[in-house]
Specification:
With 174 residues, the chain is α+β, with helices and mostly antiparallel strands. It contains 4 helices and 12 strands. The chain has a 10-stranded mixed beta sheet, with helices on one face. Strands 4-12 form a two-stranded parallel sheet. The N and C termini lie far apart (69 Å).
Length: 174
Amino acid sequence: MNKKIFLVAMLSICVAGCDSPLSDEKEAPGLRFINVRDNDFEKLSGHWVYNPAKCEGKIKIHGLLEYKFSENGLSVGGAQMPLTGTLISRKISAEVQDLFSNMKTCSGNPVILASEARHLQFESKSYDLAFVVSGEDVWAIEDNGKPYLLERFSDVDFKGSEIIEPTQKELSNI
């Protein structure tokens, strides 16, 4: 009798529109998660930038990328309204691993992804973006297939670093 009551209660929950408690999916205000571990989302959450002149100790305005990730969604390039969508976590595939095979750190060492690294794919109606979380490092992979090492916005020394202004050629390509 108790099993029948439990089964009816579980079916009622599912019919009411809630996810099954046995599901790997969870919800946030602007995101749906599939197989995302809490610690991976915590590492990805926050305000991030890609600075193409990081290794030179400078800030290059042209090519600077900005992302904000929260439970409300993903904001790109300083957008006020975050994009809502789905965040899917996968193991690192051979294809993604290959993207890092010839990459070097600022000190010239090869980039080696941690064994527990995860490929996190953000998908919305109008925008897709892949991330790789490896240890404390977070990489964005744009449509061109090139990984970009992101830095926490708060860790970038915008006041003390030399700023590289866009060239005329870069401005004409905007």
